[in-house]
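step: validate -> pass
step: tokenize input -> pass
step: predict -> running
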Amino acid sequence: MSENAEVKKLEARAQGMLPGVAGICLFMLVVSLVGVVGVLNGQFPGPGARYGVLPVCTMIVVGVFGLLRLKRWGWALVLGGTLMLSLGYIFMSRVTHNSGLLVMAGLALCFFLYLVRTEVRDRLR
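step: predict -> pass
step: emit ->
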């Protein structure tokens, strides 16, 4: 088999969305919705929470729709959102002394590490 045929075979295999990417998009949409509802109901303390949480949630929602279309900019936004979510959970765990938040931080970190994989990046345009 020639080298060009092998490259074409690999390119043909690397199309479409992976199921993990769709699951991450669904999870990130739910997290963004919970964040927006929490801000609107006043669940986050401090006056600056609106100005911090709403732009991040907007960034994640825009990124999710870009990632669902397999755009590289959508991938970058969701990748940044998962990293920010993980770091935010770690920070809140340290502030509130709630070790249960570390589980959510670990889950978000797993999503970040999944999105960094070469199989995911090869499918983006």
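step: describe -> Residues 19-122 form one domain.
step: cleanup -> pass
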